[in-house]
């Protein structure tokens, strides 16, 4: 887990998948196989509403593209907050424990 952004209004955390074991010992192990698709996601917490949204799959890929654009273009905090506010519109889950 890596915190990417923290302001008065939002927190953005990048959830990284566990490392996938690929050694021959893992192949000979009798334990159930681990999932083959290691996925990452982003959690966006709207501090104002107390709700969060978790982006994975294609949503996470789109958000990753947004982050890469921010790294290239260096937006203002207002531009970042406006973009996060649009994603926060998807938030349905109240933040229970963080």
Radius of gyration: 17 Å
Oligomer: single chain
Coarse shape: globular
- The neighbouring-strand order within the major sheet is 1-2-3-4-5
Biggest sheet record: 5 strands, antiparallel
Any idea how many domains? 1
Q: Unreliable runs, pLDDT <50, ≥5 residues?
A: none
Tally of separate helices: 3
Secondary-structure-derived class: alpha+beta
Helix content: 25-40%
Strand portion, in percent? 25-35%
- Tell me the distance between the termini: 13 Å
What string, H for helix and E for strand, traces the elements in order?
A: EEHEEHHE
Mean pLDDT: 82
- Count of β-strands: 5
Protein architecture, described:
- The chain has one domain.
- A 5-stranded antiparallel beta sheet has the order 1-2-3-4-5.
- With 98 residues, the chain is an alpha+beta fold.
- The protein is built from 3 helices and 5 strands, in the order ββαββααβ.
- β1 and β2 form a beta hairpin.
- It is 35% helix and 26% strand.
Question: How are the SSEs ordered, and which strands pair?
Answer:
Elements: E1 2-6, E2 10-15, H1 24-28, E3 41-46, E4 51-56, H2 57-73, H3 77-88, E5 93-94
Antiparallel strand pairs: 1-2, 2-3, 3-4, 4-5
Summarize the structure in short.
The protein is of the alpha+beta class. The chain has helices at residues 24-28, 57-73, 77-88; strands spanning 2-6, 10-15, 41-46, 51-56, 93-94. β3 (41-46) and β4 (51-56) form a beta hairpin.
Offer a few descriptive terms.
single chain, 98 residues, alpha+beta, five-stranded antiparallel β-sheet, DUF3567
């Amino acid at each position: 887990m890596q915190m990417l952004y923290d302001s008065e209004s939002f927190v953005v955390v990048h959830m990284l998948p566990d490392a996938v074991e690929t050694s021959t010992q893992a192949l000979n192990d009798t334990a159930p196989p681990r999932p083959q698709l290691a996925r990452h996601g982003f959690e966006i917490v709207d501090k104002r509403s107390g709700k969060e949204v978790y982006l994975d799959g294609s949503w996470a890929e789109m958000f990753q593209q947004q982050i890469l654009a921010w790294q290239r273009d260096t937006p203002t905090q207002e531009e970042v907050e406006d973009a996060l506010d649009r994603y926060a519109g998807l938030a349905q889950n109240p933040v229970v424990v963080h």
